Amino acid sequence: MTAVKPSDDVEFDSEVPLLIIGAGAAGLCAALTASEAGVDPVVIERDAVPSGSTALSAGLIPAAGTRFQREKGIEDSAKLFAEDIARKAHGEADAKLVQAVALNAGPTVEWLAETYAMPFEVITDFNYPGHSAHRMHGLPSRTGAELVDRLRSAAEARDIPILTGRVCETLFADEDGFIEGVGISGGETIGCGALVLACNGYGGNRELVRRHIPEMAGALYFGHPGNQGDAILWGDALGARVASLSGYQGHGSVASPHNILITWAAITEGGFQVNRAGSRFHNEALGYSEAAAQVLRQPGGVAFDIFDARIAGIARQFEDFRNAEKQGALIIAQSLEELAARIGVPADAFKDAANVTLGKPDRFGRLFEKKLEPPFCAIKVTGALFHTQGGLAIDAHARVLRENGRPFENLFAAGGAAVGVSGSRASGYLSGNGLLTATVFGRIAGTSATKL
Ligand SMILES: Cc1cc2nc3c(=O)[nH]c(=O)nc-3n(C[C@H](O)[C@H](O)[C@H](O)COP(=O)(O)OP(=O)(O)OC[C@H]3O[C@@H](n4cnc5c(N)ncnc54)[C@H](O)[C@@H]3O)c2cc1C
């Protein structure tokens, strides 16, 4: 049971300078940074092997001004990046946090590449809605499993203890909100000099999702089930400020019934979505996050991604796409009539939908630049909740803020445990905001926690 209890009279079983709850991207980046600064962190993780939502992701981190971009002649800057984040979040994101992530993302990706030999590359053969430059950086497999495995190996190489199979349940705090230690399932207590909450959001907690994000209450949750909202529950008990709890990252392209993420590259490169009536129903170019609710509103809560063989070739760089193909999710046909028949939608409506106008915005406001060419492809998809974007309010040093706006002395939060930079709506999520805040604020939290 998640709780905050008074620390008076608690005799801790052990004492460590820095405790980190959660061994996803945020927690492991915090641990590596602190260790580099000469402070020995201990990480507590509920799973037997660290994975988190990080392992379920495509592992793509947006960053501006990197050497990977320069090598490919891409012009970008932290200023442009910050503007993109702020615009997508409808101006709702905290400007100081936006500034912090935009400025620090490049150095963070380069730090992972140089210090921990992670072979990042910038993706140039497609772009995500809202990014005005190619700035998504990924590892060879394009999986977050590779990212979290590499982070774990790096932590092991630095002898950072990751106490797995332990759920942190209790925070022990004094009357001023100074965190003295934590209680772990099974009764063990650990005292700490500082605490970083890196235990992600509340996507896995149906009750909290129903309360804060009713439009996703019945949706498939595609993130890590261990993300139960512990950070905001502790925060609530401590008198911390929370923000943007209705914000979330959805995704409108999860293969059904295979439950495998189908990259939005299938759409941005000229693909589109139709419902069971064979009709388009939204402007797919706005983004995949807002597409989740759009798809779920269609008959049966499903849609079809429609694209062509050229686009399938781009999508195949993602292991997930290759797995979906292996499992038979991809339907290929030589003509639109044949594709309509194979996916079971009315041919006339489908051909109408495929007959997009080039060069001027259509009735949904989408501008197409190319038409699809045979062979045509389809994948049946549904919408899903990926992770929550609301969380503990933090400042640019990743310090958790009290209701009055003042920081707690030794409590930090990063990644999905903290508020993101996406504002209060699904449409505010700019692709990559998840790992962006996890890695950058993980690193910042690791630095701040060592300066107490
Ligand atoms: C399918 C999918 C695809 C995505 N693709 C991308 C992408 O390409 N780019 C991007 O930027 N973002 C993406 N995201 C979002 C991204 O995965 C998350 O924003 C990011 O992984 C959050 O990192 P984190 O460290 O905060 O949380 P996590 O990686 O979820 O780690 C939190 C850890 O805390 C542990 N934990 C929780 N509570 C406790 C507790 N009480 N005690 C002990 N341990 C606890 C959990 O077990 C977990 O291991 C995607 C998400 C999904 C679901």
Structural class: alpha/beta
Ligands bound, unique: flavin-adenine dinucleotide
Rounded radius of gyration (Å): 22 Å
Identify low-pLDDT runs: none
- Write down how many β-strands occur, each being a DSSP E stretch of 2 or more residues: 21
General description of the model:
With 452 residues, the chain is an alpha/beta fold. It has 15 helices and 21 strands. The strands form four sheets. Strands 1, 2, 3, 7, 8, 9, 10, 20 and 21 form a nine-stranded mixed sheet that branches. Strands 11, 13, 14, 15, 16, 17 and 18 form a seven-stranded mixed sheet that branches. Helix 4 crosses helix 5 (95-115). The radius of gyration is 22 Å and the shape is elongated. The model has no long low-confidence stretch (mean pLDDT 97). Flavin-adenine dinucleotide is lined by residues 21-27, 44-47, 50-54, 56-60, 144, 167-168, 198-200, 222-224, 226-227, 230, 261, 386-387, 415-416, 432, 434-436, 438.
Please supply descriptive tags for the structure shown above.
452 residues, alpha/beta, 9-stranded mixed beta sheet, 7-stranded mixed beta sheet, 15 helices, 32% helix, elongated, binds flavin-adenine dinucleotide
Draw up the topology in text.
Layout: E1 3-6, E2 14-21, H1 25-36, E3 41-44, H2 52-56, E4 61-62, H3 67-71, H4 78-88, H5 95-115, E5 121-122, E6 136-138, H6 144-157, E7 162-163, E8 168-173, E9 179-184, E10 189-197, H7 206-212, E11 220-221, H8 230-238, E12 242-243, E13 248-255, E14 260-261, H9 265-268, E15 272-274, H10 288-296, E16 302-308, H11 309-315, H12 319-326, E17 331-333, H13 336-343, H14 347-354, E18 376-388, E19 391-392, E20 399-401, E21 407-413, H15 433-449
Parallel strand pairs: 1-8, 2-3, 2-10, 3-7, 10-21, 11-18
Antiparallel strand pairs: 4-6, 5-6, 8-9, 9-10, 12-19, 13-14, 13-18, 15-16, 16-18, 17-18, 20-21
Flavin-adenine dinucleotide (FAD) is lined by residues 21-27, 44-47, 50-54, 56-60, 144, 167-168, 198-200, 222-224, 226-227, 230, 261, 386-387, 415-416, 432, 434-436, 438.
